[in-house]
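hey so i finally got around to running both of the ones u sent me last week. sorry it took forever, my laptop kept dying halfway thru and i had to restart like 3 times lol. anyway pasting them below in the order u listed, first the sequence line then the structure token line for each. didnt double check formatting much so if smth looks off just lmk and ill redo it

first one:
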Amino acid sequence: MLLLGCVAIGCIVQAGSALIVAASDSPADSKARADYICDGTADQVEIQRALNALGREGGTVTLTGGTFYLSDCLNVPGNVVLEGRGSDATRFEWSSGFMLCDNDQIVLRDFTTTGTGAIWLRGISHAKVHNVVATVDASLYGAAFTLWARDCIMEDIEFVNCKAIDCGRHGWMHDGMGSPKLIRNVRYIDCEAINCGRYSRSDHWTTGFDFAENADIEDIEVIRCYAEGNWESGFHFEGAPSKKRVTIRDCVSKNNGQKPDGYYNDNTATYGCLFGAGFWLHGDVTLINCIAENNRKCGYAVWAPSSYTSLYNCADTGSEIGYRLVETDNVYLENCISTDAGKYGVLAASAGQITTKGLAIVTPKGDGSVSNIFSSVRGSSFDIDTYGGGGTVVSCTNGQDIQFSGTVRSNAARPVVVSGSVDTSRLSVQSYTGGQPSPVTPTPTPTPTLTPTPTPVPSGKPDLVVTEIAWDPAGPFSGDVVTFRATIKNQGTAATPAGVI
């Protein structure tokens, strides 16, 4: 018998599952469609069952509108989407525990988490957190959103339109220990940290965005993010971790440094704000088109040696110090402006290799005698354009190889006072008759193309079983052309390998 012809094969492969969990107060129609229904007590049990039921292939667990009451940790497995119906519709209220994410390839989106329910991303990669609002308490160390790298590399993590509001800890924190402890390729887009640590706190030094606590960081992009009313700084970098290729664009930081002067920091035996900055910076960090307003200590601070920090088209209004460059080096400012500083437009001290181009300083109040300080600075060039200010506008003492250029507009008796090797031959001095530089409209940064939601990566083994065989015609004769058909079902836990059939 000669059997010739084409083979048509239909494979039945189970796709990632989709399960629904309803809250105890969800509408009846939502409960009717749900696979799991919570009773308002220890709701993490039902949610965890749904997550575990997805198996290794993963899938989606959708939480209906309503409030879920949790009293223990929720462990998010890999290859999973955990989603609500919106941050204004789906709410977690935690009396104990938090959300622990220990596995790669996850998406968290569209819900609010409160109480103890911080979100910990621990040693994972390929994670997205979208449209999540956190208002968590001061019961634990860390942040509303913590990235923790211990003896590992974390990468490809994305936060979009997330908010940390009235939290008792940092809004975001990159932290870790061991070697490596690297967090890289992280994107923050349209995120907000508001009043973190202001009303309660687990840490005296609570900030909005703590991008470098102990973990090393690389390739971090922060776009259109907002910090306001935080206990210490709005955007913050500690000095010790390595920082490479960090870009902060179109971000705003207002009214940070809410810690009062009389507050006692018992772990350092000091009082009041130490940082209190809109942006507290160090390392290979570039700011573009950023705004600081009315921050307690300073709009922008660059500190610690080996900084290599650059600011372009940035502005401060009303902070105590516009630009604080102390005990640092290799700092570059271009087309930046300080307006109405509470004390100094610029404070540069014990610093080296500082370059400013087109730095405008408008009516700083000064300390009663000077309004800008350049003290014990070495190997630096300051191109400045000043308008008014209280007292001496350029006070540069003990300068070493310093050049000033630009225009000083001042009615002070001694607008420029310098000592040491300081060249002011290209600095002109004029009377101040009012006015200020024309504002520069920054070019808005387009929203980057986001990576698509990762498809769950199956694990396990395929198990191919032939469930049906047929041919046409059913009773062929010798020499007939026969079409052979087989139905094959994959009963395993992984997709059918490419090229097998």
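and the second one:
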Amino acid sequence: MKKDPIHPYLMASAITAIPFILICLTAMIDIDFLTVIDQNIGQHLYHWGPAPFTSFVQYFTLIGNAQGIIPLTLVIAGAFYYISRKWKVLLWTVFTILVGVGPVVYIIKNIIQRPRPSYLTHLVDQGGYAFPSGHATGAVLTWATLAFLTWYYFKDRYPKMMPYLIGFSVFMAVAISASRLYLGVHYLSDVIAGWSIGATWFILCLNYFNLFIANKTSAENDIQTAHLKEK
């Protein structure tokens, strides 16, 4: 019997959604309990570095803003369109990152409507609701997408580089997310929920890539075809 290719992706996305669901349930049952935990942890992660480091974090966190994510997404999408010569790859990249960090996060924020931390002084100007962290969601989606596409198209050519690529992508996702805690504009549970949503959305989009892009032709054939078109 042929296995359903969708099943493992649905299972994986269900698992990655668990932290988000648990945080939501905890907030519904006892929001004060969740807030106390967030505050106890958050005060130790807030503004612990010297002034030069704080200035660096204030600029670094801009990578996760719309002004950072949109250009980065377009660069990634354009680069892998050039590599693959497939419009589907370009559209998949834009859809995966920008829809996930845009409408999906916006809808959830406005349903939950959790205020940002008020017990700390915000070290950057940030409006809107706190839950989930859009920076955390966007960081996961952006760097996971970049890591996946690089792995998909170059894993056979540069296998030794893949662990470094994955490590760097994880570092960037964590660092951008942590900057929100350092600057006092998010609770830890906001960030964890953002990671959960980002991972879940990415896996669901990965299923589409597997069904409608990856199964058509191999990555190596994509690159070879692109090179032939150039000649």
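quick thing i noticed on the 2nd:
The chain has a mean pLDDT of 88.
anyway thats it, ttyl
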